[in-house]
Design a protein that fits this description.
Shape: globular
Strand order of the largest sheet: 4-12-11-10-9-5-6
Structural class: alpha/beta
Length: 470
């Protein structure tokens, strides 16, 4: 065990971030060599004059950075850097069913919801080959025009239960995230407020904060956003946009009832609030309710893409816009992203128009449901939310587990999951005592079962089986 002690007066940001940065610097400089045991959290907290919680957050952060590993009952040790560097490499196929691996060798990833691998690589490769043969000049140059074919594909992919936006109202984007940020950038100014649910796809809120927008939190219940709470936020804080996932909400799996959809539309109209409807997961659920974009096309931006249903490595997406704002969103997207690559946009459109994207989506849903059956069997008796076609469950932790503690305990067992803080768009007093367990990334059903077995054991044994101090 080392007697190394950092000077927290140096550095910037919260104390736990400074401590994590000091540890990383010490590892890079060789002060903390591979295999070195870090001080116990309680001892380090005493020596630095901070709380154990601060040390725990710092240790959790360096875990996330792949710098250390923990062994229950033995402590926290500095990793050899080679495995950590290898963990950053992409999987072999850039168009595979999983994204860049977040797991080091020996770890099982339950912390991502990319489309599962069901053989889509061959289909995608075939289309890529055709594009390279037919459009060699376009691939080599900047994208200078937007063929109507791309918008027609987007209109088809965004369609729902017989409803479809007009192709001329559709903007092609580099995935759903880029589409949402283009809307936020185009329709708001720094300092404007954007409404989020207390747990949601937090990458959007973090990106919005980075661009100078302010975050407002609206309360939810088991059915999603509460209209009266949304009305209160609108009256008191005057937001410009509300970001919603009305079906297959991430991470709660909730679906907003029709009455609430109508109420949200009415409130947004009264207070002149734009609506961003993220339908990435909703399109996987088979939800029969009308989209908010159907109820209020004049103020709703509908977003969808291919990451959850075809391939996360294929950055294809579309936004259906209120008619006056199509050009504004397209220009904002170009300014933010540098412009959409021809190959990505053409490939995404061909997959949709050919029907191959829909076939892959159905295959993904079948695989997700097969995996969900394994999850349901392994977690029988555990309280969790799920939704059809969605590759994650929102698990209620038994006493006395805390969300972050359970996540760390799972990490010590080489299983990666997301605690509730990963989904919080801002600081909030709302505590859920839940974790999200995703199941599309394990490469095989056997790997899925092994990881779930670890999580079930932790759930059954309680936090008494996990020592977070040493």
């Amino acid at each position: 065990m080392t007697n190394w002690l950092p000077n927290l007066a140096e550095g910037s940001g919260p104390i736990y971030v400074r401590l994590a940065d000091h540890i990383e610097s010490a590892i890079e400089d060789g002060v903390l060599a591979p295999g070195t045991k870090l001080p116990p959290q309680r001892n380090l907290a005493y020596d630095l004059g901070v709380t154990i919680g601060t040390i725990s957050r710092a240790y959790s952060l360096i875990h996330e950075r792949g710098l250390v590993s923990g062994e229950v009952g033995r402590g926290t040790y500095v990793n050899d850097r080679k495995p950590a560097e290898a963990a950053q490499k992409a999987v072999e196929s850039p168009f595979g069913g999983t994204r860049v691996s977040l797991a080091a060798p020996g770890q099982i990833a339950f912390n991502g919801t990319a489309a599962p691998d069901n053989g889509q690589q061959e289909i995608i490769a075939s289309h890529v080959t055709e594009i390279v043969r037919e459009k060699p000049s376009e691939i080599m140059d900047y994208t200078r025009s937007f063929p109507s074919f791309w918008a027609e594909a987007g209109a088809r992919w965004l369609s729902h239960q017989g409803w479809s936006p007009k192709p001329e109202h559709v903007v092609t984007t580099l995935g759903a995230h880029a589409g949402v940020m283009s809307i936020i950038t185009a329709m708001t100014a720094p300092g404007d407020r954007i409404v989020f649910e207390p747990v949601t796809y937090s990458q959007i809120s973090r990106a919005a904060s980075l661009s100078g927008r302010r975050i407002s939190i609206v309360d939810i219940d088991a059915n999603g956003i509460i209209p009266d709470e949304f009305e209160r936020i609108c009256a008191q804080q005057h937001p410009k946009i509300v970001f919603l996932m009305p079906a297959g909400q991430n991470p709660t799996c909730s679906t907003l009832p029709l009455e609430r959809r109508k109420a949200i539309v009415e409130i947004a109209h009264r207070h002149n609030v734009w609506i961003v409807e993220d339908n990435l997961y909703g399109a996987m659920t088979g939800n029969p309710l009308p989209l908010i974009a159907e109820l209020a096309p004049e103020r709703t931006f509908l977003v969808n893409g291919l990451s959850k249903s075809v391939s996360a490595g294929l950055r294809g997406g579309w936004v259906a816009c209120p008619p006056p704002f199509v050009t504004r969103i397209r220009v904002a997207h170009k300014m933010l992203t540098g412009g959409i690559p021809f190959l990505m946009a053409e490939l995404s459109a061909r997959l949709v128009i050919s029907g191959d994207a829909e076939g892959i989506r159905k295959g993904c849903i079948d695989e997700i449901e097969a995996r969900k059956a394994i999850v349901s069997e392994t977690l029988k008796g555990v309280d969790f939310n799920s939704a059809p076609g969605i590759a994650f469950v929102w698990v209620k932790l038994p006493e006395p587990w805390l969300s972050g503690t359970f996540r760390n305990a799972a990490m010590n067992e080489n299983v990666l999951i997301d605690d509730e803080d990963e989904f919080k768009p801002a600081r909030t007093d709302r505590i859920f005592h839940r974790v999200r367990i995703s199941f599309s990334l394990p490469k095989t059903h056997d790997e899925l079962k092994r990881g779930l077995g670890v999580l079930r054991r932790l759930l059954d044994n309680g936090s008494a089986g996990y020592d977070s101090i040493e």
